[in-house]
Amino acid sequence: MIGERVKLLRQEKKMSMTELADKAGVAKSYLSAIERNLQKNPSVQFLEKISSALNVSIDSLLFDSKQPNALDPDWVDIAQEAMTSGITKEQFKEFIEFNKWRKEQK
What we know:
Layout: H1 2-12, H2 17-24, H3 28-35, H4 44-54, H5 58-62, H6 73-85, H7 89-105
């Protein structure tokens, strides 16, 4: 259910319902109704606002994050931070390869 995923993601981000509602610009009462599965069909606009406030994709709200190839939201955050900091893909790959090499040396 969408509400359960919203609640889980909100709790993973250590946000209160009030904080999420304020950050997303939605009514706390509506968010509460979604999380409690009283309202089961949120609008696309609501999903966009919530996913943006939680810094996750809309897909993670719509589909079970326990899917085999689903990305951990923390890894997505790290990758986004790397991108905005100006690190290139090549530099990021080099860092990973260096860490692999360093582990092998131990």
